[in-house]
Structures are given as structure tokens and as C-alpha cells.
Amino acid sequence: SSKYSPESFRSQFPLFEQRENRDLIYLDNAATTQRPAPVIDAIVDFYRHSNANTHRSSHRLARRATEMVEQTRQQAASFLNARSGREIVFCRGATEALNLLANSLCCGLRAGDEIVLSTIEHHANLVPWQMMAARYGLKLRYVPHTAGVPQFDRLGEVLGERTRIVSLTGGSNALGLRPDLASIASQLRDRELHWIVDGSQLAAHERVDVQALGCDFFVCSAHKFYGPTGVGLLYGRENLMAAMPPWQGGGEMIAEVGLYQSQYADLPHKFEAGTSPLGSLAGLGAALAFLQQQDREAMAAHEQAMLQWLHRELAQLPHLRLLSQPQHNLGIVAFAPVDAAPADLSLWLDGRDIAVRVGHHCAQPLIRASGEGATVRASVAGYTTWRDCEAFLDAVREFQRISEPQGSVKATQGEWQ
Ligand code: PMP
């Protein structure tokens, strides 16, 4: 990765050019990345020059807005390698995409049908299924796990006659753990069920090819891969989505409306009720074009090298429990200080302008199973530099020096993994 320059990548992000952010060490990328200039410009340009609601058949600006949305859809289809734009639905984010799937897929199920999840899912891939389970009498089953960490190679043990949906992460936002999706695919092969991949953390770090993956549905959020908030992607196989009922009703999603019933529009519009976040869609198009110009393999190699090093260094600190592992990891280091509150460490880092996340990371069942109340999470992106990593480690070491009780040495690493 010697060719790759995180500094030149970083120079494309105006936030880091602001005087107050010059020295910012931003390690909260799993929550949201920053946006590069082309993305910000596309949003501003849309509202400044071509704002109108979408409608093919009316005036010039409306036609232009419609073209922008459909062009972004084509870019999204090629970003995920979908077969066509009809397989791409724009949502408010991964959360809305998962709620759409839960509502649309579960209303056809019968009491006693089963949905398989894992203990490391984000709340967005837990709560909607719990709501549907309560509404339709469905049963939730979990991939076998040890202290909250799923053993995805044992997925077969929870699949049965009544399994209808398997909805699993493509990468954990709390641990970075990236399941072997090829192995999941082979365990699900030839079964009559729907496989959903929550690719929220995956899309920023790896090229996604939904056809090669073989999943039925894939969801992700633009703001995790340098795009705007308020817009996410739902990929679904065309034949499946064509047969699914719409979730939300309203304008834009209909063909004909009567007083007592209506006919719905074709895919993908059937699932896009109401006015879309047009500025965000313009920004998404710019983010996809921006990503396409990057050497993503080199960027991933740089991120992986930093991740390996951070894990190696943190593993040597005695008063710290490392929860993440460097292998099969999408850019996250998660740990908890042994003798201090995670929130105190995060405040200490904030005091040095180092931004990390502390808490349960919207994965409460997992964090609870780890025996911790909260963890500290540092997550890297293409603009993270080696200097950022060194400064972060120095600050953690310094915190340990000032907070550790004299003479007590506790090494409790490892037993949880
Ligand atoms: N799933 C995962 C794995 C995530 O990391 C996130 C965002 N933290 C979501 C789902 C939800 O994404 P959003 O809040 O953008 O809808």
C-alpha cells in the first residue's frame, strides 16, 4: 500500500480543512464518514441550480430532477452489481430498508414461521423483526454463539422447515467482525427462504457484488461510504420484489388511485412512496462516482495494515480488554479499559481532539454478552493516517498511566474471544 496516500485522500474532505478541525483525529467512521467536496457540491448544486420535484412529463427542471434520480439509480445498480435499476430501491437509510423488508416480507408469513438472526446485529436488524414477531406470532432464532459472538459456520443448526427469513450482518458495527459470506451462502443454498445481508459496514470497505454473493436482499446507508445522510440502498432480486406488497403508500408509488383501491407502480417505484430526498440523491450519485475513482484495493490494504498494527499494540497494554480481532475485520478496534470507565477514556481522547465512540453501538445484546457495560470503538477510513493511529495509541497509553491504580496489574485479555 506504499502507493496509497491517505493524506491526499484526506485533502478532498473540506471538514478537515476548517481551522478548528485541522488537527482532528476522526476515528468514528463506523458511525458516519466525512463527505468529500464533490458530494457536498452536488447537494448544493442541486438546490442552487436545478431544484424541482421529479416528474417525467412536466417542466424542464422536473425532467432534469427525474433524470438525476434515475442516473443515480443506475450508478447504484452498478455499485452493487445488481442486474438492473429495477432491483434498486432508495430508502432513508439501512434502517428504513430493513423496516421495509420486515413489513413487506412478514405479512405473508404464518404464526410459527421462523426468522434467523445473529447476536451481533445492529438494532436496526433486530427491532423490526421483533415487532413483526409480536404482530404475526413469528419465532426468532439465533445463530449459535459463544458469549455473544456468533459461530456462523453452525448456521445450519438453526435452519428448519419453518425458516422463512435469514437476516444477517455483512459486518458488525460493534466489533468489525466480517462473517464469511460465501460460507453463509453455501449453508443457505437450495433452501426456500429469503437471505438478507445488512451491508451497512461492508460497502465502505469492500467492493460489493450482490450477484456473486447470491443474497436475495442487501441494504446499506450512503453516509457510511462518504455519501450524505438520509439516503440508503435496498437491493432485492427483481422476481422477489415484484411479488412483494408495498410497505408505505402515497404519491409516486401508484399507477392508478381510486376511492377504495389503487394499483401500484412498477418496480422500483412501488417501494418509493412520497417525495425522495433529492439533494441527498444527487450527493449519493457524486459519492458513487467519487468511490469509483479511488483505488479501493489500495485503500483497503492501508486500512487493514493500520488495523493489524493497532490490534498488536493495544494487545500489549495490560489494563485493557480487547474485544475485536484483527482478522476478518472491517476497520474497527473495540476495547474496554479494565480499571476505568470507557466514558472517561473517550472524554480524555476528546480532550486531545480524537473522536471515538463509546457505548453499546446499537448492539446491546452483544455488548451485554461481553460482560461490559460499554466499549470504546475506534474505526478507520481511507483518510486515517499512521500519525492518527500513533497519536491515538499515545493518548490511550497516557490515560492508562494516569488512571491505573499503582501496583495493580490485571491482564484479562482474550478470554472473551
Ligand atoms: N446496520 C449496521 C451494521 C450499521 O452499522 C448501521 C448504522 N450504524 C445500521 C444498520 C443503520 O444504518 P442507518 O442508521 O444509516 O439507517
From TrEMBL:
One of its GO terms (biological process) is cysteine metabolic process. Its cofactor is pyridoxal 5'-phosphate. The keyword Transferase applies. It comes from the Bacteria. Residues 25-392 form the Aminotransferase class V domain. One of its GO terms (molecular function) is cysteine desulfurase activity. Keywords: Pyridoxal phosphate, Transferase. Belongs to the class-V pyridoxal-phosphate-dependent aminotransferase family. Csd subfamily. This is cysteine desulfurase. It comes from Microbulbifer aggregans. The chain holds residues 3 to 419 of 555 of the full protein.
